[in-house]
Amino acid sequence: MTIIRFFQEVNKLKSIKRTGWVRKNVKNPESVADHIFRKTLMAMMPCPNDLDSEKVIKMTLVNELPEAVTGDIRTTHLDSKDFTRTKFEKDKAALLELLLQIEDENIKKEILDIWIESEELQTREGLFFKEIDKLEMAFQALEYEKQSDNPSDFNTFWETTEHTLKTPELIELFNELKKQRD
After folding, report:
1. Residues 113-148: pLDDT tens digits?
2. pLDDT tens string 12-60
3. What CATH number matches the domain at 2-179, 2.60.120.10, 1.10.1040.20, 3.40.50.12780, 1.10.3210.10?
């Protein structure tokens, strides 16, 4: 049964550390799976009523799946279009490799379609997902800042989040979170 292999492969997300935190020399940085957990919870709570909250939650669960193959590649709002396109193609190939382990074609298609929507940012759900993804990063940045001798090392994470947010409720939450930086 190949589905077992799929679950074994995605289990790697529990041990893959988030690159941005590793680069900042954070002790015991969160794993990709840690990031997925909180952003999935976050997607449930402030999701606007006019969005398909189930789809957004699914995006939070599948968006990082390629990283089980590629590892975590840090991105920011300053990345070039070429970098973004190349990363998309590598991630898509990695996801397709993982999906070979799933026999049910409907499940494969659903995962791939949701992943593409979460990456292309062409729908309101995709855009909201990206905001949640970055807001979770700001929550984590705050935790690491409090442990750091140099909190300004984490400014780029805050800047990327602020640049991404458009939903008023998430902006309000972000602004409240920023107050805790002091």
Report:
1. 999 999 999 999 999 999 999 999 999 999 999 999
2. 999 999 999 999 999 999 999 999 999 999 998 878 889 999 999 999 9
3. 1.10.3210.10
Token code pair at residue 35 = 């990031």
**Hey, CA dihedral for 36, 37, 42, 47, is it positive or negative?**
positive
- Residue 45 phi, psi dihedral angles, 5° rounding: -85, -55
